[in-house]
Amino acid sequence: MIDDVENEIEVINSIYGEHTLRKATNVASETYLLAIPCQDVTLRLSIPDYYPDVCLQITAVDNVGSTARKGYGIHVLNIAREVLQRIFKPGQVCIFDLLQELEQKLDHEAAANEGQQTNSSHASLEDGKEFQSNISCQTNASNGITAPPQWTLSTTMTEKKSIFLARACAIQSTSEAQAAISHLLSTDKRAGKATHNISAYRIRTLVKGHEVIYQDCDDDGEDAAGGRLLKLMQMMDVWNVLVVVSRWYGGVKLGPARFGIINAAAREALVSGA
To answer: Which residues are within 8 A (CB) of 37 and not within 5 positions of it... i.e. 6 or more apart?
Structure first.
């Protein structure tokens, strides 16, 4: 149980930020605090010794920010309990999936209350938060690359003989993203021989005066890694960029800890390219 929880803490905090999931102090040893991203609500969890064979419990609201409306903490608590009851499967860790589904439900609820689509909450292209990269990736009219992608690389990370390396490159379209990946795999023999090349991209552009958003990810055989990589990019609010994380399997399974390494490498490449 201890390893499972520690791995989940590492993975979740690498994606959502430090202290998102943490052990509570001065209380029972099985008590943890889960800060719901962007909601100003923290829930109290009781994680039994036999988790994930036995389901954790969401016991209470630990804290609600001063800006939240009255009763909002209890509202989030009830939704979280409903999500947990639906997604939990004995033997499978579930806190990341709980966070992901809870966030989606609350986002959709907020959009419905405003009478707008969720995408309408994105800032305009001129809001100054656009991912400004010193790297470029250009294509011609036939979507072929006229100049090789200028990748920003992370440091190489090694864990139990598995090797991880992330690359980030600026893009302006989905065709550029696919062309950049194809170019990488066809010209870099080491990347082409990687066990997995996990990728994700986010693009924000204007079409006939309207903002259009494209985002997608690919696990490349590393189950659920692409979605976690895309989630990292969403949390970092990066746009018009592609990130690829290559993993060379070393023969030892890493379990959920691999997601933390994948996202740590990706974060480093994204920050270095900013």
So the answer is: 16, 17, 20, 99, 103, 235
Of 11-25, 30-44, 91-105, the range with the highest mean pLDDT is 30-44
- Rounded to the nearest 5 degrees, what angle is found at the Cα of 134, between the Cα atoms of 230 and 213? 35
Query: Does the global pTM surpass 0.85?
Result: no
Rounded mean pLDDT of the chain? 85
Rounded-to-integer distance, Cα 186 and Cα 180, Å: 10
| Crossing angle for the helix pair 225-236 and 2-16, to the nearest 10 degrees | 40
120 vs 207 pLDDT, higher one: 207
Residue for token pair 């010794």? 49
Contacts of 53 (CB under 8 A, 6+ apart): 90, 91
